[in-house]
Model the fold of this input.
Amino acid sequence: MDKVLETIAISKIYKNGASTVKAVDNSSFWFSKGEFIALVGPSGSGKTTMLALLAGLLRPTEGNIFIDGIDLVNLSDSERTLFRRQKIGFTFQANNLVPYLTALENVELMLRLNLQFNPQTAAHAKDLLIRLGLEEHLYHFPSQLSGGGQQRVAIARALIHNPTLVLADEPTAALDTERAYQVVEIFSSLIHEQNRTGIMVTHDLRMVEFADRVINMRDGKIVRIISSRDEINQLARIGRQENENN
Amino acid sequence: MALYLSSKEIIRYKGRYLLFSLVIALITTLVLFIAALAQGLADANKQFLDKLNADLVVFQKNVNLSAVGSQITLNKLPAIRQVPGVMAVGPIGLSSGTLVFNDNTPSLDISLIGIDPRQLGQPAVKKGRALQTNQGRQTVIDSNVATKTGIKVGDKITLRTIINNKEVYNTIEVIGITDDQQFLYAPSIFLPYDTWNNFRPQPTPNNNTPPTIANIIAIKTDNPAQSILIAESIIRRVKDVEVVDRKTAYEASPGYQAQQSTLDTQRGFTLLIGILVIGGFFQIQTLQKVPQIGVLKAIGTPNNNIAFMVIFQIILLTVIGITIGTIVTLGLSLILPYGIPIVFSGKNTILAIISLLFIGPIGGLVSVRLALRVEPLAALGMN
Done:
């Protein structure tokens, strides 16, 4: 299998006076095309730091990160900005969308940034939003959309420019159960359908049901990588039970 | 991209941005009015000396260039005339009086200016004719007098002055009207020198004796570029005089410098307030947009695009505000009652507008810096 993303012994260490905190500790893994990965773990386990490292938003203190064969560690700030623009798609937990652009304009924004905006790609953006069930909301501003609607627009924006890697930070955090399932299911199916690599950070174990692999982090370390469908389903069941108990 | 995003934002939040443009418009109006007031008050003080057809003005020595306080005996004229480079000279008498009217027109305080029509100092007449002789009961009035009182060429006017502690009334005929020639905050009327000498306020009547003194002497040189050298030459050859150019002469008028520097300070402070208001507004705007800027950076928007977005918005809003403010100011100037010392000169207005155009970008520098310092990690709530 082609390695789309590979990390080699990456660590991120924060120094605060005499004390040091290892937010990510000596982690190595790789993913291939068409995989949808869930990155799970308790608060403070290093999930978001790992996501920031994979996105090129942070430089690792040690180790290397290869995406499409390019080592992010060796890129300058402006090269990393360009890399993110071309190779990475993002959805965030909150403030995802530009508030003064309509749903369609938010998706088109990635095309404009990559100088790919033309009638064909604009039509593709529209089709993608329609496919995500937003036909009635193409010209609505983010404030006029529900939380689920906003996440679906963000997913469309993350995919429209054909990125290598799609990263989602807690995409279901602000959604009710039904919408959370809808959003992750759509996200997962588009990743598989478009043969991209998707990584979703989530604290909600129920959502791992749609993942091909689950990476469990604790105290900055990868404690387990789960690839077995049975084990993943088992984890999702635990998540559902925890949710019911709460 | 930057233009696209910033114009979309302005269109989306047009109410907020329009309101802010109106704040800039108000600042513009204030700055333009202060500039016009400075010009108007300066004109009211200096117009006569500024428009005098002379390169140099002679004052009595040690009177701090006070035109009214200066007294120069006319027997110095031949000596001044003989100085190389002096082409023409003209004695000028300066005093004040009041025009009184039989009808309900209120009396008008005026500057009473005596000139010798055969010599230098005659103002340009735009209606009627100029004074011809050094005597006679004739006058050329400043257009301010004509506008304020309705006096026309051919009218007879009554001048009241105080001589020997008594009010003396003289009737004179208006033969011409000049453009604005205010002096010491009063409109002017010009009289033949001998007539001025008889009518001017004085402790005792002079019984038609020929004048022996002037307040100042106007000098035209054959080479204005050499004026300083000629002035020095006059000072060397003629006793007890001081010679300066016209600008120095009117800047020495009582209160002129203090008044202009006060208004300049007001204008400076208004511009400073403008910088702070614009800076404050955009800083708050940028602070509110930190997560949004973080998302834009995270998805790959270059820093220069982010900076240009902020700069474009600042410049656009400043230009809109200044345009509205200038239009409002010019509109207001059309309906202001006559007599208010507000003069919109092209040069001053353009200078004020240029300085206003700079306050936006200067005020916005902090917010540009702030926007550039937002980390893309802010999108992940990690900043």
In short: The longest helix of chain B spans residues 14-51.
